[in-house]
Amino acid sequence: MFQRTIKLPKTQSFFLFGPRGSGKSTLLNDRFSVKDTHFINLLIPSEEDRFARSPELFQAEIEALSPKITNIVVDEIQKVPKLLDLVHHMIETAKNKRRFILTGSSARKLKRGKANLLAGRGVTKNLFPLTQLELADAFDLDSALAWGTLPKIFSLKNDEERMEFLQSYALTYLKEEIQLEQLVRNLDPFRRFLEVAAQSDGKVVNYLNIARDTGTDSKTVKSYYEILEDTLVGFYLESFHTSVRKRIKVSPKFYFFDLGVSRALSRQLTMKAAKSTSYYGELFERLVVLELYRQESYLNREYRLTFLQTEDDAEIDVVVERPGKPLALIEIKSTHQVREDMLRRLAHFQKDFPKASFYCFSNDPIEKKFGKISALPWRKGLSVL
Questions:
Q1: pTM for the model
Q2: Closest CA to 116 of 87, 94, 92, 76
């Protein structure tokens, strides 16, 4: 098992959200002992049905536990949101204080149903697929670009098994998260949307073009993207601007949470990412952005990740807004040999941001300095930032 870097609260109740297969149950089974922890799994149909029909059984079961049981883990709490009211009540009134750990792979039902989120008495943590730090020596760049880093991938023996797993994952998402939860009325347009959106992974979202390609309207496309966010399948990267008002007027980029899942949804698993190709460069850029996003979430330093694009289409891949520190502007290059002429676009922005720090993250193993620009091996760059 890989050692996860996420830091969980030691005494406080908390939510642990993460997409299916990110390792939430494995993590909690590793961090909590059966000697003092009671586990309830709402993915088991009989458990979900029992508590959905009679929520009061949940409190009765908890109160009947031995005082030695101080932790209550409830997997996939969104399956029975009514239980949150009972959790809140027990946190407030229980004589023997117990801690509740509530996991979920979708915030959709909780948000739409205005579920009780414990009024601040439970913090929220997010778990992602494995990072390069967690994988350590087991990390392989080409494998991560091709298959992503969901934990299950690393127990499979060959590429055929990896492909079958990712294709099955995509179908399971459609069936269990979308169809069974009735998040959309008609599944066919959403299925087409998933393929088109995955093909646009890491690019500026053009709602009108995607609506045309999927046979829907832009309002529906926006609602579909909301579903992806709520079911933790991806996130927006906003366009940078010093004015918040102007920030939200520029279309964002959307990143799927895992490269393997994105490639499965876009039907690109059989495509080989050959070095020096544009496809390889796109995958590499998306991988580094995912690593930045996951690292910021785990460290919780209140950094804001954005991207910068001008009217003449000059673009900076990532802008990191750091409270009390200079902006960090990052260009991501898949090249194995960075040259100064490759960084003209980044250098162009130095006059606009004279106090900023400038970086190039690449596959070049040698650290280099070009004026104010630090060119670093991408893993070293992540650690520096």
A1: 0.92
A2: 87
CA distance 353 to 146: 36
First to last CA, the chain: 27
The CATH class given to the 281-384 domain equals alpha beta
- Domain boundaries defined on the chain: 13-126, 132-269, 281-384
Express each pLDDT in 250-276 by its tens digit: 889 999 999 999 999 999 999 998 888
CA distance 195 to 370: 40
Degrees to nearest 5, angle at CA 315 with 314 and 316: 140
Residue 342 is which amino acid?
M
> What is the distance between the alpha carbons of residues 236 and 255, in angstroms, rounded to a whole number?
6
- For 187-231, write each residue's pLDDT tens digit: 888 899 999 999 999 999 999 999 999 999 999 999 999 989 988
Question: 13-126 belongs to which CATH class?
Answer: alpha beta
Residue 349 CA to residue 240 CA, distance in Å, equals 13
Residues 6+ apart with CB under 8 A from 281: 333, 334
172: tokens are 């399971």
Question: Do residues 67 and 98 touch, judged by C-beta distance below 8 A?
Answer: no
Q: How far apart are CA 98 and CA 309, in angstroms?
A: 49
What distance in Å separates the CA atoms of residue 358 and residue 318, rounded to the nearest whole number? 11
CATH class of 132-269: mainly alpha
Secondary structure (3-state) at 162: helix
342, 369 Cβ separation under 8 angstroms: no
